[in-house]
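Quick start: read one record
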Amino acid sequence: MLLAILGSTGSIGVNTLEVVRQSGGRLRVDALAAGQNLEVLCQQIREFRPRLVSVATPEAAGRLAQLLGEGDGAPKLLWGREGNLAVATAAEVDTVVSAAVGVAGLEATYEAVRLGKRVALANKEILVAAGELVTAAAQRSGAQLLPVDSEHNGVHQCLRGVERRAEVRRLLLTASGGPFRTTPRQDLAGVTPEQALRHPTWNMGRRITINSATLMNKGFEVIEAHWLFGLRADQIEVVIHPQSTVHAMIEFVDGSIVAQLGVTDMKMPIQYALDYPERRPCPENRRLDWKTVRQLEFEPPETGKFPALDLAYRALERGGAAGCVLNAADEVAVAAFLEGRIRFPAMAEVVEATLESMPWERPQSIDEVLRIDRAARERAAAVVTQ
């Protein structure tokens, strides 16, 4: 199977290449897209020998060419929007791993879906910002959307063999609760970016780690689950599970519950998505050691302390471009917090103010989604400076 990876130098991209490395040759890399992390990208190119590589800018492409030097195995180098599109739509590619951060990979991922390619979706912002358009395109083309997020991957596994979706009463997405699960609400105003970046169970990128601390990441996952599995907002519930051993649960109408459990290692859902519908053996270090599982705790989320989760439900119920606005405003707010310009609780305040001040729209194209995204970012930036 030939792969294209959007976001190859990020956490998901690096883990995907480790799965490729362990695949015994059944998975091969045809194309890579990355941003500015040229040293890591150069190492990836030398090991996996992709035919096509895209970076953020022409200047980055020039620096990468110097790092690689001349040789018969040098890939074709592209950059920017056109480069991302070329990577995602390469005729030779069977599966596109969409792992670019934010909406950077939206257009390229949409085009891959439109062409009917299998997409291993690790970038939840794709469906948060443009879920209606992307899923409609998948229905028209027959493209498979296979979730890489551990929770949605778990839901996908729980639903295997379910012939009638009407049998499903609700799905439960688990959340670790982040580093401030037990922190008193009044103390959140004083937390630092360094504290917020210390996730208790997962090793992830900076934005997703901050969003896990606010529960916005779980709110994004609620929206993503709606588009992936066709369930209403009132059928999708979040439960705090500090051990992060149970990734998702499905409750059926007869009261039975099916759960998916596994270690906190993203290579497991990545391998599942790339090998589906087959299951292949994994290394021993990716197996759950039952001798270490002493307790599994569950509790409801404190939405008063973490209002971002309710904002995501509100955006889902509003529909249209609300998800796009939610994502754009959150990205601006997270950046402002990481730069020390706003406090931890203000991130949700920035998102809420942006949601309430943007006009309701229902985008009809990806270009319209990107236009709304830009406008929401501008509005959120203005809210930050108020």
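Residues 2-148 form a domain with the Rossmann fold fold (CATH 3.40.50.720).
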